[in-house]
Amino acid sequence: MPEPPLDYQLVFSVEGLINEYVEQARVIRGGSITEVDSMTEVEEIFFEGFPSLEAFQTSGGTSTLPDSFEGMLTELDYKTIRYAGHCSKFRCMIDLGLCSSEPVRIGDKEVVPRQLFARLLQENLPADGPDLVLVRLEFVGTDGGQQRRLFYDVVDRFDNSTGLSAMMRTTAFPASIIAQMMARGDVARRGATPQESVIDPERFVAELERRGIDVKRYYV
User: Fold this and answer.
1) What's the CA gap between 76 and 63, in Å, rounded?
2) Which phi-psi region, left, alpha or beta, contains residue 85 (left: φ > 0; alpha: ψ -120 to 50)?
3) Are 28 and 74 in contact (CB under 8 A)?
4) Do 118 and 163 sit in the same domain of this protein?
5) Segment 82-97 mean pLDDT
C-alpha cells in the first residue's frame, strides 16, 4: 500500500529515479521519433485488487524501440506506473528546482540542489519493505476491419521464500534468461543488437513463466 510522503519506495538507484523523471522521453508520434517532457500526459490506470493508479511519461523506458519501429508504428511510448498523486508531488519539487545540478550559494557555501534532494530521498523514503512490480503492454490495431486492444499484464510481488524483491526478479531474471539464450546459441546475431530484433518472444515469455513471473494476455 502507498506510504507517505511520496507514496513510493526506493527500489533502485535514486540518481536513476531522478534521471527518469527529469530527462526527455523518446517516443513515436505520427510515425516519427520525437521527444516529450517526462512526468507529463498523466492517465488513470486500473489493476484488479489495487487502489487508484496513474501512468506518466518517463525517460529511458523505450530504449531502442523507437529506432526499431519508426515508420512501422503510428504511436509508441513508455509510461511509469505509480500510486495516484505521486506525479504531481514529485513534479512540484522538480519545478521548485530541487533536481537542478546548478549550485546555489547559501551564505558562504554552495549547495547542489540535486545532491541534497537525493540524500533526503534516501533518508526519508522507505526502502526495505515488500515491493511489487506492475507492467502493462497495450497494443491498438485493426483486425478484420475492427479496432481491437490487446493487453499483456504482469503483477509480480516480493518472494518471501527467496527474499528476492519484485524489482530484483523482474530485472535480473530477464537479463539471466537472455544471457543463457546467448550462451546456448539461441541468438544467432552477434554484437550490440536491439533485443526486440533477436530474441524469440514466445520462448522468452515461457522462461519468465517458468520462473514464476506470469504474463496475462487478454483482449478488450
Assistant:
1) 11
2) left
3) yes
4) no
5) 97
The total of structural domains in the chain comes to 2
Q: Which three cell numbers stand for residue 56?
A: 506518466
pLDDT at 86 over 90: yes
Q: List, for residues 143-193, the tens digit of each pLDDT value.
A: 888 999 999 999 999 999 999 999 999 999 999 999 999 999 999 898 889
Query: For residue 217, what are the β-bridge partners?
Result: 152
Cell numbers for 112: 547542489
Coil/strand/helix, residue 93 = helix
**% of the chain with per-residue pLDDT over 90:** 92
In which region does residue 105 sit, left (phi positive, over 0), alpha (psi from -120 to 50) or beta (all else)?
A: beta
CATH at residue 115: 3.30.360.10
Give the torsion sign (CA, 142, 145, 147, 150): negative
- Phi first, then psi, for residue 19 (nearest 5°) are -55, -45
Element (H, E) at 139: strand 132-143
The CA distance from 79 to 38, in Å, is: 9
Write down how long the chain is: 220
Cβ atoms of 133 and 166 closer than 8 Å: yes
In this prediction, residue 1 carries a pLDDT of 73
One domain for residues 106 and 84: yes
